[in-house]
Amino acid sequence: MKIQIVNNTIKTLCVFVLGFTLVNCENSKVEVQQKAEFKLQYDEPAKKWTEALPVGNGTLGAMIYGGVAQEHIQFNEETLWRGQPHDYSNEDAGNYLGEIRQLLTEGKSREAHKLAQDEFMSEPLKQVHYQPFGDMYISFKNHENVTNYKRVLNLNDAISSVSYTINGVEYKREVLVSYPDHIIAVNLTSSTDKALNFDLWLDAIHEDKSVITSNDSQTLVVKVKDGVLRGVSTLKVNTNGTIKNVAGKLQVSEASNATIYLTAATNYIDFKDVSGEPEKIVPETLAKVSNTNYDTVKAKHIDDYQKLYNRFQLSFGDNGKSKNPTDQRISDFSETPNDPQLLALYVEYARYLTIASSRPGTKPATLQGIWNDKLTPPWFSSYTTNINLEMNYWPVEMYNLSECHEPLFDLIEDLSVTGAKVAKAHYNADGWIVHHNVDIWRGAAPVNASHHGIWLGGAAWLSSHIWEHYLYTQDKVFLEKRYPLMRNAALFYSQFLYEDPNTGYLISSPSNSPEIGGLVAGPTMDHQLIRALFRSTIEASKLLNTDQEFASTLKTMIDKIAPNQIGKHGQLQEWMEDKDDPENHHRHVSHLWAVHPGKEINYEDTPDSMEAAKQSLLYRGDNGTGWSLAWKINFWSRFRDGDHAYKLLHKLLSPAERPNGKVGGGSYPNLFDAHPPFQIDGNFGGASGILEMILQSHLDKIELLPALPSALPQGRVSGIVARGGFELSFSWENSELKNVEVLSKAGGKCTLSYRNRHIEFNTSKGETYTFDGNLNSK
């Protein structure tokens, strides 16, 4: 078969019929038409936090309420947590490991739970909370009789805006968080001279706080303290009006424009070091922009942001509902799930949230990204590793934001240090391990309670992200750098697994199947994770030509690990024992990890297990919290049942706040995912599920439209990434594939699959290959 190559050395214009325009092959650069506009929009201010609009740069985050008489901007800085550097490991825990295992082997579950709770858990038992930082308030004078109110978060430029008219005067506010300048910028304008009059002040909900007004009457400082961490935030106002300091507030009068720059920092350097100097860092950062024109800061911000955001574009068509307020669209979708542009918006919003909460050099996204308004947030607003942290990064490679994966790898590096202490103290093993929850101090020991806190899969699951990044990028330099993390996680499990006296299999014990069933021996999920880690470590060692003896050891162990089993109800067993309850509708379906995000269970290699996994999912049901719905969407996409996946999207994109006053899984008015309360993982997991409907590449081939729902008969995507280092653009009409374009970013063999059509071809790095809907070359 002939494959037409778009040669980068010859001036050739390759028309891409998706409407995304042309490839200038001489410059090796795909130029995309103006990216379709995606925005969240409302016709009234936010009344509560889950209606406010998020902005962020990975370090600083803010929630914009958009009030008229008073604007409220609540802000965060990623390193303000409670507590102090601390080793959570329990030095004596390993002395009890054998006894706990023996009790579980003998079926003495109650005794095992008690012993583990008393002797095996972390010290102290609980970790610490992520904290809000402060609040900016802007109070406007004579702001009544408002018309033409509009509140918007424009995903194309990452700017939140508010506009309205009062007595013929047009007022506008814009808020952005700049990654290059490390500041929150608020720009206020009026269409009439001297019409802008407001009071500005800072506050914080911390008990230990102080607010200081500088002598120049242009600067405010708020200082907060929590544990050993102290935070400093400073703002400065530039305006063509007058500024006075009145009772600790800055009073701006007779202006037509004003710009507020704010930044914040703490003394946190890393999980072992709190010797930072925010009192020095903050003014230095602010000084770099304090006299810079807002338009310059804005342009710099947009250029930086769009280099990431504009790589990808998705469309399912638009039936006109995109013009409606976003909260109305969510409500309407719950009644009539016919708003295809809302699904594309959901994916683009997830990409926006990724860029806003996880940039290179920052910390990874927590359970709430970087946004939090409570001193005691739900689940500590921490890093929960038994699914939620990983779910935050499921779509990051696929929707072309590979750099935003880096903060997770940095976290894994930290955990390899603290987790090594836990491995030795709790399990008498080398390597490293992490349990189900992590905080800023990188606690890796089992926390909270033995019936859910002694989960052993964290190091394996996190390590899978290293391997996935390599699969998508084919970056051997990266793999060589991060391989020791995978290798040392595998080393731990190779020493931790032990032979079950009852079956002769190697099993994981003690452990949990998150967060159901209590303390057990040999949960299915653990074994799936460990096998996947061993296999990827073997592959990595082969690619890097290293560790062959260790790889051989792992290969020998894989077949001895307890296998997946099909139970008496036709289900995939969650435990060694055939004790699954078909009436249990728990939100966790952890034993299906090998379906997604894993690949061990699939229709090609293990069809019986795939059907058993589907049966398990049917038993668990379609209801769930936000992140649970999101995971189930991914499952149904892997089951190639797009209509069932779409049915769950209907639930995920329905209002979390019901008319009867109850709150359930779904979406808040600002499209934040509801556990409830807010957890950002569902936003990312839901986006992953939507993309899995239209492209899958986990089985060493690229499947196009593998689970396309009937509700999305037309669409196009550009810049979506598949494993193997391939970037694709393709379109479909009447549920039929029309065109495909494949950019090979690393070279190597490419396999395309669409329904019963399959093609294989060799590629060269930087070359683009085009096909029609029958996968014939063009």
From TrEMBL:
What are the boundaries of the signal sequence?
none
- What molecular function does GO assign, one term? alpha-L-fucosidase activity
Taxonomically, which superkingdom? Bacteria
Alpha fucosidase A-like C-terminal domain residues are 696-765
Q: Name one Pfam family in it.
A: Glyco_hydro_95_cat
Biological process annotations from GO: carbohydrate metabolic process
The segment(s) forming the Glycosyl hydrolase family 95 catalytic domain are 293-694
Checking InterPro entries in the record gives: 6-hairpin_glycosidase_sf, 6hp_glycosidase-like_sf, AFCA-like_C, Alpha-L-fucosidase, GH95_cat, GH95_N_dom
Provide the Glycosyl hydrolase family 95 N-terminal domain boundaries: 40-268
Which PANTHER family does the record match to this protein?
A: ALPHA-L-FUCOSIDASE 2 (PTHR31084:SF0)
Protein name, UniProt field:
Alpha-L-fucosidase 2
